[in-house]
Specification:
Elements lengths: L5 H14 L3 H7 L20 H16 L6 E5 L5 H10 L2 E5 L3 H13 L6 E4 L13 E7 L8 H11 E14 L6 H11 L10 H11 L2 E7 L1 H27 L5 H18 L3 E9 L7
Parallel strand pairs: 1-2, 1-4, 2-3, 4-5
Antiparallel strand pairs: 5-7, 6-7
Helix pairs in contact: 6-8, 7-10, 9-10
């Protein structure tokens, strides 16, 4: 197994601590027990509700990666397990979800058993950069808004490549900077995203493509889907605006730690910078060669 650096381990711990405390807010404000989704939604012309948009994002990713019946899927950063359970129900997929948050893994396993899908889906509390799972185990490596938390994104892609079978496919839905130079003011806005330590600097698409090619991926495609996610981003931004004063109170009362408060500010800045047009949301797909070894 790969030995992770202390900086990566510290970053992972910060992310785990943050997400171990997300459930009450996510349950109240974002997900329901049908979708169990903490990702952004996908609003097309037929979408009628926020809950429907969350399922639509799953479908959009599944269509672009060519999901098929009975596929073996690794769900990297699986949250509360909603997407993994959806893949099992809709496609009969055999899914392993991995997550750094012990609380989310426990809840995901609870819902898998509750829905009678625990023969199809399992969840493990491991670092997605170093899963310890066997080489070539999966047809599809699925990552939904987990890449933005990763400090070493090439290591993330290398682990995805290792876990995929020859001919296996990668699908990533996440945030990217534009391939352009940013002004000093824009850079200050972007720096606010990473100030809490939860979200390192977002990658540019050309960087992602270079990293993916370096580890061996082919047929790399990045599709901007910001138009479809705009309503979700606005919803998230407004919620952050509303709860910002509450966070200040919790910080003053020492109910929320300084690290958690700064992480919340970073999350708030992420959606503020989306409104400013400083980054875009994309679905990326790539393929491991049929002839690849290991």
């Amino acid at each position: 197994m790969t030995q992770l650096s202390s900086s990566i381990q510290n970053q992972s711990l910060a992310v785990a601590t943050w997400y171990d405390r997300v459930w009450p807010f996510a349950r109240l404000l974002w997900l329901n027990e049908d979708n169990l989704a903490v990702h952004l939604g996908y609003w097309d012309e037929n979408t009628r509700s926020h809950a429907e948009s969350l399922i639509n994002m799953n479908q959009a990713m599944a269509e672009r990666v060519g999901m098929f019946q009975g596929a073996r899927v690794l769900d990297a950063g699986c949250g509360f397990g909603g997407t993994s359970l959806w893949l099992a129900k809709e496609y009969g997929a055999r899914v392993v979800g991995v997550n750094i948050s012990s609380d989310q893994v426990a809840r995901a396993n609870h819902y898998a058993k509750k829905r009678g899908l625990d023969d199809f889906v399992s969840f493990e509390n491991v670092n997605l950069l170093n899963t310890g799972l066997p080489d070539g185990s999966f047809d599809i490596f699925w990552a939904q808004e987990s890449l933005l938390h990763i400090l070493d994104k090439q290591l993330f892609l290398a682990e995805a490549y290792r876990l995929l079978k020859p001919g296996g496919k990668l699908v990533v839905q996440d945030s990217y900077l534009f391939n352009r130079t940013y002004s000093q003011k824009e850079e200050r806005h972007l720096q606010a995203i990473s100030s809490g330590g939860l979200i390192p600097r977002l990658p540019r698409p050309d960087e992602f493509i270079t990293w993916a090619r370096t580890v061996g991926f082919q047929d790399i495609c990045i599709e901007d889907i910001s138009h479809y996610a705009k309503r979700s981003c606005i919803r998230s931004y407004r919620q952050n605006m509303f709860f910002y004063p509450i966070g200040q109170v919790l910080r003053t009362l020492r109910i929320q730690s300084e690290q958690e408060y700064r992480s919340a500010l970073g999350n708030f800045a992420l959606y503020r910078t989306f409104q400013l047009g400083l980054w875009f949301l994309a679905i990326c797909t790539a393929r491991k060669s049929e002839l690849a070894q290991g």
